[in-house]
Please model this.
Amino acid sequence: MTDKVEAVQAEEQSPLAKSVTFTVSAAELKSGMDAELKRLAKKVKMPGFRPGRVPFATVQAMYGQQAYVETLNRLIGVAYEKAVVEAKLNVAGAPEVKAEEVAEGEDLKFTATVECYPEFDLPAFDALELKKYVCEVTDVEVNKTLDIMAKQRATYEEEEGRKAAAEDKVTINFKGTKDGVAFDGGSAEGFVFVLAQGRMLPEFEASVTGLAAGETKTFNLTFPADYGAKDLAGQEVQFEVEVTKVEKAVYPAIDDEFAKSLGLEGVEKMKSEVMTNLNREVKARISAKTKAEVLEALDGLCTFALPKAVVAEEQQRLADSAKQDMAARGMDVKKAPALPLELFAEQASRRVRLGLLVAKLVEAEKLTATEEDVKALAQEMAGAYEKPEEMVEWMMKDANRVADLYNVATESKVVEFVLSKAKTTEEVVAFDQLMTGMMA
Model:
């Protein structure tokens, strides 16, 4: 039975820690031990005895301690679970169970200390000042995108006497020296790059620009202070460059032939497809930006304590995820030092805080996504693929993917709900600003 429930006030304990006391019947413990020993007696093998015929006293001497521990642990588990239910505790972690001293033969008494999830009221959202972003995709953006697509499919042709200019492909030989001595990685033969693509340092590109095939140039260059090679960072060096070839970029015309090369019927169909794709991308970026700001605002409303056990679990999960990401990038994680869990403390706390608040909000306002919401989201995501119907079918067949879709759809409902309650203003974002990630 449950004797009492009390908050644990000890300095070292979590502010969410509570304790329950409960008893384990001595008679039930003895009965359970006897039953366990009888079960074991049927299996015990010993020289001179047939299986199952070993004297009970011998079985008890051999396995009495084992039967006691197993039976006691089972009864403690049952009694603890009953005590938690009767006390209406929303347990967040494993309990710390301590036994009290009792006389031999008396019922055993235990105290279990455990962290609980916080109890809190939902905050008011009407004082929040939030933005709902909008971004219009016009023919201007479509044409810019088509220009980029055309440039990605450029061909190059050599032009005698041509001076290297932006977007030209140049082939060069170069040698870099520092204080008259060649440095590692500073020399190459037949090196090819396209000007104005940002592949080379701006000063290097500027020095090559304007040179024709057969021309050479010597110039000084100072590496940036944050340059990857530490021995060269912030250092002045000298380069000798010889241009061996200059090729002019030739871009395909944006016409029906270009559209057909992309598998589309004609230029108008191509423009329609680009418009659709851009609108999809804009919607995704706007949604991500809005969601991030809403969650940030919600996090600022969280004032309740967090269960340490849950935060610790989330820290470990984040550390494991980071390790898997490192492995996916080709790193040998077996040789790498373990990532300190403290690195993930703040992120884990934020995730737990928001998780608890959002879960309560979803329950209180019935914001859980429906099957229709999930299917609509799957169809929207599948729109970027060549065969959307097959992609939707593939996504809906996997339980884990469907669960992820439910979470995303539910989060969207939470964001829309908060925006509807907050002081929300609409803000127009320029397309270029959105696509280059320059939003404040």
Summary: The chain is about 45% helix and 20% strand. The first helix runs from residue 26 to 41.
